[in-house]
């Protein structure tokens, strides 16, 4: 009989759908199949308690054509599981006829139920999420407490999978809530990192970089990763773009600002629609993200349309999707070398050779090269010697608030 205190979850109305990875979890399917094989019964299932005093089957393992399956709901008072949880029935039932209460329950005749072994599914905090059950259509007097203990062991495995999925779902919901709170733009700010001419040492523009609350705990990459994870990547990117565009009035005449967007957002067309309405001056759209582009032709077509409103820069050159053929086909105005190539270039012939090749390519197709991540004078001198036109990095300036960046640009790079 049940002795542990019963702690049920606070039921939502309606109950939140289970995550797909939990509904289709092959590990739970294997656990249920193993239980059936060990006990020699026809049916094993997992259920959860939901609103309106009901229980719902979530996973069912059987070779029979059953009148119920995942998603089937019934009043919990009509289930063996609930009466077992309440202590009205034992967890091990060799024959339902041994217990008068089972004769009043529809399920006994519907399946029919011949033997029944059940244990509550408790999460680590003690909450009774549902139940783990195995049953046969014929009574079985050979079933013992040892069989019940085996079933409880399997139930523990299922509970671990369920709890892991629930925790992941909660994390996703928390991430979704965080991201949604940023979409009105009030929590997003723009910093600007200067870009300088390696020939003159004077600034020529800035890269607009998004900043979010709690920057010391969660950097911008974490915010955009969360957004992508919960299906709001394009929305958060466009929020950041709109906030960045509002800062362009601080850019001195003759200098430019770059905004970062992923290939997926570019392909969607929403950026082009926004720029067509705002018609910004001296803007560079920087295509970011070192990942595989799913539809390169669509990306190239959209980039060609964007050129009516902005110049195009390709980020992460030397890594990611920006192979030589793609660079040629996209016809960018600026190539931004990944900082992996910059780091220690003065002592690395291979990095120098690759940089020289990129400079020659840029010259052939009529674009300039910007080296990212320059932190030392040796790196700057080497880049200049190799023909790289511009540089960006902590040697010149960290990302700055908009007004401080404006002062930097106006002073010719002397006010950091």
Describe what you observe in this structure.
The chain has helices at 20-23, 26-39, 80-85, 106-110, 145-180, 220-229, 233-245, 263-268, 270-278, 296-306, 324-330, 339-342, 349-365, 377-385, 402-410; strands at residues 43-50, 54-62, 73-75, 92-93, 115-122, 128-136, 189-197, 203-211, 256-261, 283-287, 311-317, 334-337, 368-371, 390-391, 400-401. With 416 residues, the protein is an alpha/beta fold. It has 2 domains: 20-175, GAF domain (Beta-Lactamase), CATH 3.30.450; 181-410, TIM Barrel, CATH 3.20.20.450. A hairpin with a 5-residue loop joins strand 5 (115-122) and strand 6.
Q: What are its keywords?
A:
single chain; 416 residues; alpha/beta; Beta-Lactamase; TIM Barrel; eight-stranded mixed barrel; six-stranded antiparallel β-sheet; 15 strands; 38% helix; elongated
CATH superfamily label of the largest domain? EAL domain
Low-confidence stretches: none
Mean pLDDT value: 90
* Approximate helicity band: 25-40%
- DSSP strand content: 15-25%
Q: Give the helix tally.
A: 15
CATH architecture of the largest domain: Alpha-Beta Barrel
Query: What fold name stands as the CATH topology of the largest domain?
Result: TIM Barrel
Rg for CA atoms: 31 Å
Strand segment count: 15
- Structural class, judged by helices and strands? alpha/beta
